[in-house]
Amino acid sequence: MASGLTQREFAFVTAFLGPARGNATEAAALAGYARTRKAQGEEGYRLLKKPHIQRAIVARRTIVERKAIADADEVDTTVTRILRSPAETTRDRLRAAGELNKVMGRHSVTHHVQGRLSLEDALDLVTKKRATL
Question: Model-level pTM?
Answer without folding.
Answer: 0.52
